[in-house]
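2024-03-11 09:14:02 DEBUG pipeline.ingest accepted 1 chain
2024-03-11 09:14:02 DEBUG pipeline.ingest length=408
2024-03-11 09:14:03 DEBUG pipeline.predict start
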Amino acid sequence: MARFSYLAIDPDGRERRGGMDASDESAVRTALQDKKLYPVEVALSGGRAAPKVANEPRGPVRGALRHKDRMLVTRQLATLIGAAVSVDEALGILAAQQESATVRRILADMRAGIQEGMRLADVMGRHKSSFPNAYRAAIAGGERSGNLGPVLNRLANYLQREQGLHAKITTALVYPIALSLVAITVVGCLMIFVIPTLIEQFRSFHGQLPFITNVLIVVSDILSRFWPLILLTICGAVIAARTALRQPHIHLAWDAALLRAPLLGRWIRIVSCSRFVRSVATLTASGLPVLEAVRASRDAASNRAFARAADQMAARIQEGEPFSHAMRQSGYVPPMVIYMTVGGENSGELPDMLEKASDHLDQEFEGFIQTALSLIEPAIIILMGAMVAGIVLAIMLPILQLNQLAAG
């Protein structure tokens, strides 16, 4: 017998910590489940890892599910469980039909855990990089309430929405970025390799060169001489910025500054709020209390400042404030979402109202993307045309002056 410490959640959503004497981790989890407690963490007292049960796979399973793989596995698992297939058998069917070796190994390891008597949320905890905290919390709620199939369906819809939003953002950024890179490359090649060959002829011109030509000569001279140093400086600045953002306090300050930005900040708040609210809706619909849903959903928003605001919401909810009041105090949630949350709290239909609020935010963001694209693309083209026209004008003006002197 060994002494184990545990962290569990009771049916009311409150955390319970304690200790228990048992032969292994599986016995502790079984005893907690018999007491209607959901085990979150189980470890030997003293911080040592709990001993493995006899049938537990040896060694970690490398790799993680991509977002698309997680979405497909969730959808297929929901379909099979909805057809009255056991979780064990469903995981075996899914593992057999996977083309990716990584997905196949993860599903096989999950099935082995189910066969050992573990719950689905517990075996997903073996692969935390594949199944985030909010995802596992929803699965745990579905298992406790006996509605695992509907919860998986909601999770699949949530992941599909996330995939769609990510695809729209990526599609919106690809064309402007590609167009900008082409413009910078064309202008850079002209300034570094073409203009210097013409400068020698301009310097032999004894008349007064136009102002725009003098500017072109100075800029071209700087770029042609120092372009390797400029390129290294840019790369160094990017590396330094990435390194600095790995520091939690710097990343938090940067994310907070983004949320406060005049125009961009509004849309970052909308995207972060949409992801957070949809995650809370999914978790509360699975049977999780609002407090635990808010805590588990903090990471759904990729912005760390918004995640910190979610922690503050959870603290206020724990003190007895309604979810809508905690939202209002954060300062990051749009008023429309707050009003819909109030309606959901009063009517007892909070998950549905939060889902509708998230849909509204997504539609608003899609409208912004379409408007931004309709403005950014022609603006880049006009800017590129103006730069090329300026270069051509700076070259042609001295040539025209030479022609006038020759004719005179």
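2024-03-11 09:14:41 DEBUG pipeline.report The chain has three domains: 2-44, 67-158, 171-408.
2024-03-11 09:14:41 DEBUG pipeline.predict end
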